[in-house]
Amino acid sequence: MSPITGTPILTAAEMRSAEAAHGDSAFLMEQAGQGIAGAIRRLVAGAEVLILCGPGNNGGDGYVAARLLREQGHAVRIAAAGEPKSDLARAARTRWDGPVEPLAEAQPAPVLVDALFGTGLSRPLPDGVATDLHRLAEAARFRVAIDLPSGVASDDGCCLSMVPRFDLTLALGSAKPAHLLYPAAGLMGEVRLIDLGLAPVSRASVMRRADLPEPGPASHKYSRGMVAVVAGRMGGAAELAAVSALRAGAGYVLHLGGRDPKGAPHAVVRRRWSAEALDDVRIGAVVIGPGLGRDDDARARLDAVLASGRPLVIDGDALHLLDPDAPRGAPAILTPHQGEFDALFGKGEGSRIDRARAAAARSGATVVLKGPDTVIADPDGRVIVATGGSPWLSTAGTGDVLAGATGAMLSAGLSPFDAATAAVRLHGRAAVACGRSFIADDLAAALSRVR
């Protein structure tokens, strides 16, 4: 049992392919059962366990885990939602020599293990099954889901039925999209991986610790990265982005346009807006969009930035003025929240992973689809999904902080995909450092502490 950090994310079809490539399904079920039993034994301190088994292979994993727990002297019962229907599940059932209670008649236990339905569920649970699952979950002190909570769609994180909240979810073989995508991700509790010895191949993965650029003995302000932040109608947003770029590690930040607010850091260099200011070859990234506005002046500034040939971070208002299909002469990172994303790319189908990946391919830019389950997609098809987002980030200005931090990473020479990943990681860690009820100014300051 290990964290899912940095591991591949597999859809249901990709998981089936990985299992088929392994070839020994019975061995995989035994491995899964051993991992489940070992995790439960370590966590529940001898409390009685009730395992709910479904008719498929998820239920088969439950039968194996129950058998192994019983062999080790642990108090365990099984309640089933019907007879096993797969060959593997039937074989696992025959090796369990204890009673099997009908799900509808099952009495609660301190520990509930949900092995009813896992990866690949495509329809709501039968009403009676859903009712009994909730009844037993509400009565338990500790709730464990095997692979996924029953009622969750594995590929997009949607809930096909009302799903209880679990304390622990044991992902079998690989992380699935639903482990990370909301609303399902909010019901998982802690997610831990049971390694089955597969060799999964996926272009999507869970965010790991990011490699941030570090200055060396020969570093100077320009080699660390020069960021230009283009201001507009709301100067405070651009100010947040500029300060955040410095605190995230940029060596030089040029604030173009806007007023010099009282008490602003003297380290930010300020000039009047002009397209010619972007001709400085030392500029490693331009951030545009925070507080830009959407009038003709804002559009003219965006056009000048797009024509500059500098690497870009495009956020906020600039996303509403951008043509995602127009060619650009430089790498770009787009940082929309869901509303901005829908306005820019339309309300398409598929998961947030699918939509972000399609948007990146269409626009030729790295796309950071912000949210509690931030998705970073590259035009080449790679995707990283962040974990551990703080709900306290839902306050004005935190997106401006991310834009500035992203500009710092891009100006330091990281690829757009790596720059976006590093910035999202740093931004998330800063939010954790801030704790509760912070404002965006606190978040910007916390970037230095986290760095």
UniProtKB/TrEMBL annotation:
It holds the Pfam family Carb_kinase. It catalyses: (6R)-NADPHX = (6S)-NADPHX; (6S)-NADPHX + ADP = AMP + phosphate + NADPH + H(+); (6R)-NADHX = (6S)-NADHX; (6S)-NADHX + ADP = AMP + phosphate + NADH + H(+). Keywords: ATP-binding, Isomerase, Lyase, Metal-binding, Multifunctional enzyme, NAD, NADP, Nucleotide-binding, Potassium. K(+) binds at residues 58, 114, 150. Binds 1 potassium ion per subunit. InterPro entries: Carbohydrate_kinase_pred_CS, CARKD, Nnr, Ribokinase-like, YjeF_N_dom, YjeF_N_dom_sf. Residues 10-204 form the YjeF N-terminal domain. (6S)-NADPHX binds at residues 57-61, 118-124, 147, 237, 291, 337, 400. Its EC number is 4.2.1.136, 5.1.99.6. AMP binds at residues 370-374, 399. Its cofactor is K(+); Mg(2+). Residues 204-451 form the YjeF C-terminal domain. Signal peptide: none annotated. Belongs to the NnrE/AIBP family. Belongs to the NnrD/CARKD family. PANTHER family: ATP-DEPENDENT (S)-NAD(P)H-HYDRATE DEHYDRATASE (PTHR12592:SF0), ATP-DEPENDENT (S)-NAD(P)H-HYDRATE DEHYDRATASE FAMILY MEMBER (PTHR12592). Catalyzes the dehydration of the S-form of NAD(P)HX at the expense of ADP, which is converted to AMP. Together with NAD(P)HX epimerase, which catalyzes the epimerization of the S- and R-forms, the enzyme allows the repair of both epimers of NAD(P)HX, a damaged form of NAD(P)H that is a result of enzymatic or heat-dependent hydration. Bifunctional enzyme that catalyzes the epimerization of the S- and R-forms of NAD(P)HX and the dehydration of the S-form of NAD(P)HX at the expense of ADP, which is converted to AMP. This allows the repair of both epimers of NAD(P)HX, a damaged form of NAD(P)H that is a result of enzymatic or heat-dependent hydration. Homotetramer. This is Bifunctional NAD(P)H-hydrate repair enzyme. It comes from Sphingomonas aurea. The gene is nnrD.
